[in-house]
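User: Can you predict the 3D structure for this chain?
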Amino acid sequence: MSLSSFAFFRGLRKDNQQFAVIGLGRFGRSVCSSLHKMGYQVLATDVDEKQVAKALTDEITGHALQLDSTEASALEEAGIFEFDTVIIAIGNYIQESIITTLNLKEGGVSRVIAKASSEVHSKLLRRVGADHVVFPEDEAGCALARTLTKPSILDRFELDPDNSIIECIVPEDFHHKTIAELQLRNRYGINVIAVSHDGKFQINPEPSQRLEAGTAIVVIGCNQDINRLPI
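Assistant: Here is the predicted structure, written as structure tokens:
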């Protein structure tokens, strides 16, 4: 996640309870289902009436409409311009996604998140006003590659292209040694920010904290240093 992405998500209102999702393909359905399960109000739309009916039947959203998002009047009539955050999940249809993004921004939507299928598509989306662009296929591919090559890394948050926070499994080499004994900052250039214990994380552990193989720790550092860890 880049600094610009961090700034975007930091700007989201914590009390925002309503989202609109345009496009009910696999990505759009996943976004709808996740938000709906978390208790948020979601308005789902698609140009295909069958997709709309299926979304309601599968109960992945409480509200769904059939509309053509390239028609600004249809978006306005559906009240989508009143939403603070709208997710455009029609990335495989470049012209439609660009026109939809333009319609939403011209309609006054504060935050528009759009799915892109290529770098050129991403640049065009940003040029017409998209506040944040996602590449779900690329992100899923990167996550899979990391899982295959570094299975001990359970989760990763990229602060920028060079630095990350990761949750990983404590290796056998670190078993029953203290953080101070391991000299992780000097040897690997990383800092331990949390250690798991009895199913919970202890934040900012003391240097005297002993690590147990097979448990989880959270560390922060540059990606090159993280890759040198014996995990």
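The mean pLDDT is 88. The first strand starts at residue 18 and ends at 22.
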